[in-house]
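worker-03 picked up job from queue 'complexes'. Input manifest follows; three sequence lines, order preserved.
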Amino acid sequence: MNEFTNTRKSQGAGMTSEQGKHFGRRDFLRRGAVVTAAAGAGTVAGGTLLATSASSTPGVGMAQLPLSESIDYQTIPSVRLMATDGHFSLPGRRHRDEVPVFGLGFRVVDDLRTVDLGGELNKNPGELISKYKGLVTHTAPTTIGIEGIEMAIVLTNLGLVVRPDLDDSHSLHWHGFRNATAVFDGVPETSIAVPSGRDLPYFYDPKLGSEPGQSKGSAGTYMYHCHFEDTEHVQMGMTGIILVEPWQAHFSAEPISNDPNDWLWLPERVKVAYNSNAAGVDSSFDREFGLLINEIDTAPHDNLENVQEFVWSDYKPNYWTINGRSYPDTVIPQISPIMQVDTYDPGTGLANGINFSETVDMPVTPISAEEIAEAEMYWQPNSALIQCRAGDRVLLRIASLGFEIHSLEAPGLDLDVIAHDASLLVGKNGTSDLSYTTRRIEVGPGEARDVLFTAPAYDDGAAEIDVLAPRTTGYARKFNRYLIKSRNNDRNHNDGGASHADGPSYADVNTANNYGGMVTEIWVYPTWDDAVGLGQTPLPEQISINETFPTLVMPDGQV
Amino acid sequence: MKLRLRSKFTGLLAVAVAAGGMATAFSGSQTAGAASGNTTVICADGAYDGVDNSVTFNLDARQGYIEMPDGNTVYTWSYSEASNPLFQFPGPTLCVDQGETVRVNFRNPAPVGTLAGGVSADATSIVFPGQVGLTASGGAAGLLTQEVESATDVVTYEFVAGAPGTYMYESGTDAAVQVQMGMFGGLLVYPNAGRNQAYAGHEFDPEHEYLLLFHEMDPALHTAVELAVMAGGATDATVLADYDPLARHNRYWTINGRSFPDTIAENNTPILPFQPYSSLVQINADDPDDGYDQLPSLVRYGNGGLDNHAFHPHGNHLSLIAQDGRLLPDEVESYTKTVAAGQTFDILAEWKDVEAWQGTGSPVGVNLPALNNLAFKDGVTWYSGSPDLGVEQQLPAGTTTFTECGEYYFPWHNHALNRTQNFDEGFGGMLTLWRVDPPKEFIDGAWTSPAACK
Amino acid sequence: MNYNRNRSPRRTLGLLATVALLGSTLALAATVSPAAAATDVHLCAKAGTATVDDPTVAGNPTTSFDFYGFVTVASEVECMTSAVPTYGDPTPIRLIDGDPTTVHLYNQTSFSINFSAIGLTGAPDLGGVPAGGSDTYTFTPDHPGTYLYESNLDPRHSLVGLTGVMVVDSAVAGTAHGTAASQYDKEQVVLLSEVDPAFNATFPGSSDLSDYKPSLYLINGHTFTEAGSSGPTPLTANANEEVLLRYVNTGSTNSSMTVLGVRQSIVAFDGENQLGDGSSEEDPLDHSQVFVTAGQTADAIVTVAGDPGDTLSIYNRNLRTSATGDNGAQLMQIVVGTDIIPAINDIYFSAAPSTRTYLGVSVGDADVAVYNGTTVDIHFDGDLHGLDDTGSQADINAVHVDPLTGDVYFSLRYDYAKPTGGTVGVEWAGVPDSILQENDVYKWDGTVFSKWLDGDAIGLDDNRGRHDINALHVFPTTGITAFSTSGSIQTSDHVPLSTGSTTWIGARNEDVLRWVPVFGAANPSGAGSFESVADFSDIGMAAENTDGLYLSGSDIRISLTSNFVEGLVTFDHDDLIGCLGHAPAAPGSILESCSGALSLELDADDLHAGGNAGQIDAYSIG
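worker-03 finished. Artifact:
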């Protein structure tokens, strides 16, 4: 495991990377591995927690930076993202019909353990390229930082499989970072970008509210996307949610020092989106879901794949997505990032038993419609399905990297908006509660809203059978179905086709038929006690963001 | 019949006030919006009359051509001061002080829209959304206000600029065509507390006041109007004979009438004679530890276009203090703001040097790869070569930089990224840059921007 | 200038009862009956044909298009037979806040539909009512305001017309949301929609959403064209009347609505006030644009201005139009009527330091009188409630009268023994103290007294005369109390900025503060924090003393204990001075500068026959 360290703050502390080894903490164990951690750690359903790995070894492995001068680094948590191309599945543009949509995206490095990078960044990441080039995921993994803890995201440009003639650089823009510095703002024209075959570590220090020059802490919901020829690369799919957890979620005191040993970890993570505040805005939640909304105009995607120019002022979307999926795919469960197709064997074209090579048609042994649908979603791991128990406080982190203004509504639910653009609604002095209750969330391009709702009471009479549950060995659950959807109804379709004829047969007739696009569902299950009373299996506690039950697992049982 | 108590008193007050003449500092033409410096607010010179505390502007409808970064020119209509022979887009920024009576005399002398240059053979006008108690006289009655219908008509619009804030004016005739053709401009009302305050109690650094007016254009409409003019006069029938407003398809998006990279050229740049207003927002970083309280800059958004635009600054969050010329009860912080058509916002913008980056600390918690392992797009950059604020460093051969004193640049752009295009060219359209110079330094008795940053 | 936003309830009701609403606008229940047992709404969904002026053809002749729409009926039979839906009908289904409601939906279309409305609780009906079938939907509206109802079983239903407007009336008559700031004299639904006639014609057969391309933009089911004859029906309203615009965006595009010539005071979106900037139903802020996204409703109040015959144009500033004519647009108009509605509000005041006559009426220093522009009446007579104003002890020196309820909030100049014994004792029983303190605020609701604000509980010190409250404005629903003190509050007095804080506030006697309780109206004196509303330093006030206060939206009105000269105008110590359209509605910033724009709201000389003999030490506006 290579340590990646931080020069600046530790220069005086004389701390060697050895000392930084010992700060794994138990609640990270519960949250499962940072994706790049050693195998055997628990799965992180969708969330790529940046903080320390689950295993006792510290920090997160990544390639050791070239030590030009013998600078003593301090280990900081980081994650490694790869930028490459790939194909995504939309209703009417399926892998199995060999017409998936070409796109670009970020992909997280799964298990560095098996890949020896020779410890040198900026060497051609050979293994990485051969293994992941062309297999990108959209939307990018939800990346989680913590207030007061410095972090880094290392971006590696693997180049493109479909368009070897293009040597597009890539970059990483943290949309909304306060007092950003230009060099890590990710705008090629005003700083630097990552050429094909190279890496660049992006360093971020999400400040505590008490640090100089800060009026508010950094907790909140942000976005990250590529900013190289941003109109094209953003529309191609290089987008993701990045959020910063408040220090009160993990520590009993502000992590002022950069020495992890000084941090006073809480025994158990506290599910809260913002620190306690004089205005009394309560941001505690039971479950948390990131919803990145977007549109797709397949014309530029097809043109890019077929070496054709596209005039971007002709942009006219024909798909509308949440977390890169268009309804009804949005309700397909979360796919653990670890299991993303890294068992794809180019030779056989088989990935998890499903054959995706260009020429092969469906496998001989018929598998269920759900499994086909889930296989289509391997490269779009982030589900938008919202499962919760009656009475749960559910946090929706809604962010948009589309080009249109969307009016979202959730018929039947009162939505409490507590923050705009990672800024808690507490006014200038932080003392007045400006949060408000609404039934409609309007999100423009580049805007984010943190919204809480209380799951309504469970009505067994109107409940439907959860078809996903039985496949997790005998569980039986029922739920009430609510929708959270765009009200720009002229956009609620899949390239014209409103029905989901080729979607999964997840739900029986009650799925909101004739809808497509920017729609997802909220499944409200009974409380733990009511479920037991009704002889149903209670919905488990949610551990990480966007976790669904089940989380799709590797066929060979790797959780 | 009961007296309208209100009006009785207003009348009384106005008379009383006028009798003695307001002892204000202004006489003759208005000075620039604020002190000199990098502000991009250029005020039209209205004639101030201390007797009735009024300011008068003479505006003409004008036609001309604007240049876009992709080399295309677009036939455009807008307003100019009668005293200014040149066409300009957008219209001149009218700056007035709170409480003044504003009088605008509007004409269409060389009628834009006709061969002789008229807007439309039949009519044009000005409306002032957000103002109340407006009276219009002269010309002929139109749908929304009095209209100018001939080369000799003069319409006078008059209102009291009661509440300070950011406003706009635009055509009220056949607005779907005439506003899209470019007929709009900014109207700024300053509080009596002084021109260094957007609203009393909200001070900003008077050297850093910026007005950003958004707009978008479908060149097909402008060509249809141009052809109609060539054919003898742009009337509605002729204009829309071969242009379907429902098929509006914008190709250009502008701030203050320019698209990037022209947006960051200076005010009155000679390369754009008819597009005088810059959109470069240039501020000094605030070093929280240097004991100098760097006042925030004031940025005024105004959406003169027909579409709703979401505007996003890199670099920092913004503090929204007012909407449509009314102080919000409390400030709202955001990193992207949807500005609906016709809306205005007043914003305090600052950038805090939280890492003391100017040379002593370093924002870089990691070791950057060598420059040859990095890409500089098209060999041109607004990067100084060094991550530290205020430091210029050598760049790879063949890469030229626009930086002067190690300043940072951050884009400030429409986040509907299909609108940051010049027809089919990327990184253009509704985009400008936010230039952050190193913090002011205490040099011979005053806090001034570092010399190299002029 | 939004000057006279608040009318005393008596006047408003009277006005409403007499005003007949014209044209196809709204039949308005003059008084809202108490919560009826339950309301039944019979709703019929049916195909129909609409005829509008065609904006795409010169001269704008009429054109017609097919649609499916809702219409209220008496029974399912009527739905099956004679009922005919009107496209874009602005007539709302009228419901009462808190009143259980059942909608009987009769589906006479050829496809399944459902009934959904933002604000209804319960899981959405995803099954729907089959063609020819019927079903019931029960709900209890829990918040007054404007709501859109529709069939959302299929996204195309809203595009072909299956939408409508529902109004939940507040229990407080004449108000949209039960607050003074949401009072209105007339209301007008502005229902936005767009139509693609070709799409409607093929629905539900082959209409493919990617072919949907609207060509008509309508308000209340009509297009506005230059030469057309059947545009949206205009509303006639008189100058100074307050019109409640109920925007309902049934379409699928986001629209930026403006009313040229007046400001729009936004009270609510989708029935709830939600702007996140501190404005509220009680303290709304005026804007020039109301951005109504797809499916959203907005309640905005405009004060009509202009001369009889003038028109105020309500239009979509996104200027989507298909018109060939000069001014085709998504537009409707308000025509300024001929009646002159007096602009005067009722102004409440108390005399000091002893009984004085105002326009022939004797007002004691413990009385609260009301002046409606012509006459003075007694609104609250201190003597009847044990406040002996023969001496100078019982002297009300701060008053706020709630325009809706007539409740009187007041503070005394000096400590005064609480009246006891007899019926008066019963009235005061609810007040805990034996001594009525000068830094407390009491409330009289017509039958009993109660303590609204305990000065000591929020840090004021009753032993210091300087902390006497001598100007007052109360926000009943949020429990916030704005006030000024007769003397200064020094930091050495150790008045904490917020409960438990060790930062001490300082304030001069002209400053206006406000105590913001965390638990709102439940406990106005509870834990909370001070916030500065105004300190007037930027208009040169230093030695003045505010003894009259009224806050509303972006207007602030004060009275001073001494003359004040501003520029060339001298305001007498009794006058009511207005600083309109500048003051921030709420805290967080110092008062907007008023110099050069102060207005004389009331010349006290009008009240004292023959010159400035009187002394007024408290003001409120009804």
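worker-03 released lock.
The mean pLDDT of chain B is 83.
The two ends of chain B are 65 Å apart (CA to CA).
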